[in-house]
Design a protein that fits this description.
The protein contains 14 helices and seven strands. The chain is mostly helical.
Length: 388
């Protein structure tokens, strides 16, 4: 039975900024539990085995990708150096794509039960955990967030579903704890997609490590940033802000929102920059909300879900070709939202019964969703119309 969720803010307004309780960690962590659950994996496997669409087509696309290649050779580095827009690019692409490949191989293992894929995922994770020590240059926090979002998804599936030997799982956990988590856990005052991606990684890593303190810290930052990234009319005349950014005047806020001075439901802090970076932020919001749901705290029923719903619908309308009004981004948008709609649409439209016409149409147009080659991969396969 379809139903409409009731959204209620669970925190007080303090000086125009949402303050959140930091008691989000579950008493017992659920595994596998980063973005995708065992129930979702089982549903996906059953549909692929039956040759049902869109899952079989999505699986075939994944298996035809370079990430599913059993001959893939990892390319680890001790120091990954990433400048702005990955210039210089010393290991940036290699790290992100090896992490996506590890997740892809883990999914392939679970669906096919061909342990060659599990062993390849382990090979990729082991290669990096044996070598990497640091991320440097200006894009280090974002790079760490992107790669750090994929690693725990792969590790969760392998550690908790593969019965073969992963002798170096402890070393991999140490890598996440000492190389990745310190780079991302304190957040960022850059554009909002940075901190959202960083908190996605921090939440996922915290689940794998069963680190309640880091989970709470990351979740608190995530909820504050989400409120500051997607505008709702209930926020008032101006968007929410992150306290550390000192956006204490209308002029500062408008400048931070890419010069946009009219605020409507679903507009994001980066809509007027381009929809590609906006998609990064929206994707991270959906991934954290999905991980939180699996762990027992359903953020889709809070303002996080409301913001995600409106953000998806607003951006989808224009990605589908809707005319851009003159008040929005000076009448011009740079499109390219990416394969990021499945998780949010499944949770909000299918599970909670919200009408999401534009998002649904874009979802169908993009199926089967692939990878953005950064940190998003195969979400028609894992979350498309998945009731689990």
């Amino acid at each position: 039975m379809r139903r409409t969720a009731l959204f209620a803010a669970s925190a007080a307004l303090v000086a125009g900024v949402l303050a959140w309780p930091a008691d989000a960690a579950p008493t017992t962590f659920v595994h596998p539990g980063v973005t995708v659950s065992k129930g979702q994996l089982d549903f996906t496997r059953s549909k692929v085995d039956a040759g049902a669409q869109p899952w079989k087509g999505a699986f075939d696309r994944m298996m035809a990708s370079k990430y599913a290649d059993l001959n893939r050779a990892p390319k680890p580095r001790a120091v990954v150096e990433c400048g702005s827009y990955s210039n210089p690019n010393y290991g940036c692409t290699d790290e992100r794509e090896d992490a996506i490949a590890a997740y892809t191989q883990a999914l392939a293992w679970y669906i096919t039960r061909d342990e060659r894929h599990a062993k390849k995922a382990i090979e990729l994770m082991d290669a990096w955990s044996a070598v990497i020590r640091d991320h440097t240059n200006s894009n280090a926090p974002l790079q760490t967030g992107w790669a750090g979002s994929s690693w725990p998804k792969a590790a969760e599936i392998i550690k908790y579903t593969y019965t073969g030997n992963w002798a170096n799982s402890g070393r991999f956990a140490t890598m996440l704890r000492t190389v990745y988590l310190p780079e991302i856990i304190n957040g960022s005052n850059s554009n909002g997609n940075w901190e959202l991606s960083m908190m996605e990684a921090a939440v996922g890593i915290s689940v794998f490590l069963e680190d309640k303190a880091s989970y709470d810290k990351a979740m608190a930052k995530f909820r504050t940033r989400t409120a500051a990234y997607v505008y709702l009319s209930s926020d008032g005349d101006l968007p929410k802000t992150v306290p550390s950014q000192n956006l204490d005047t209308r002029e500062k806020i408008v400048n931070y929102w890419q010069g946009q001075s009219t605020f409507v439901n679903g507009l994001t802090q980066e809509t007027c920059r381009d929809l590609t970076h906006t998609g990064y932020g929206i994707s991270a919001i959906s991934h954290v909300a999905e991980t939180s749901r699996i762990q027992g705290q359903d953020l889709y029923g809070t303002d996080v879900g409301e913001r995600l719903r409106h953000a998806l619908g607003f951006q989808a309308k224009y990605e589908l070709g809707g005319a851009v009004p003159s008040w929005l981004c000076r009448g011009s948008l740079k499109l390219g939202l990416g394969p990021i709609t499945e998780v949010g649409h499944n949770a909000l439209a299918n599970r909670l019964g919200h009408a999401m016409t534009n998002t649904g149409a874009l979802n169908e147009r993009n199926r089967p969703a692939g990878s953005n080659n950064l940190f998003v991969a195969w979400e028609t396969l894992t979350h498309g119309d998945n009731p689990s």
